[in-house]
Amino acid sequence: MYYSGVDGDMWIEYKFMKELPKRATTMVVPDLSPDQKRWLGNRLDEGRNVYVVMGVGAKHAILYRNREWLTPISVKELQAKLVLRQDLADWIKATVGESRCQSLE
Questions:
Q1: pLDDT band at 98, cuts 50/70/90?
Q2: Residues 6+ apart with CB under 8 A from 60
Q3: pLDDT by residue (tens digit) across 63-80?
Q4: DSSP labels for 46-61?
Q5: Containing H/E element for 39?
Q6: Which of 42, 46, 71, 92 is the most buried if burial means most Cβ atoms within 10 Å?
Q7: Is 7's pLDDT higher than 80?
Q8: Among candidates 27, 10, 25, which has minimal Cα distance to 63?
């Protein structure tokens, strides 16, 4: 997904997990294809704002920055990084600013 506003832009690759594994020691990494990893890395190398967001359940998400999406981390560590989806949406809007695009309706 590409977001653009008056203050900047960003690319986000979204993934989803119904729920975190039960064991705190289970290692988790977003399920990205080799092509997705390459594309994200290339955009990051160009200086773009690139993130991976993994939705967890109905209300939470985890934001991965700076190639964090390549390194598995434990469920316990992920739990500490969980944010509400609405808070993440607010962060995206605050980061890119208001869009000047108008609806075509």
A1: confident
A2: 82, 83, 84, 85
A3: 999 999 999 999 999 999
A4: TT--EEEEEEETTTEE
A5: helix 34-45
A6: 92
A7: yes
A8: 10
Phi and psi at residue 35, to the nearest 5°: -65, -40
The burial class, CB within 10 Å (0-12 / 13-18 / 19+), for 93 is: middle
- Give the pTM: 0.88
Q: How far apart are alpha carbons 79 and 74 in whole angstroms?
A: 9
Tokens 């939470």 found at = 60
Residue 102 has pLDDT above 70, yes or no: no
In the chain, where do the E strands start and end?
A: 2-5, 8-17, 27-28, 50-56, 60-65, 73-74, 83-84
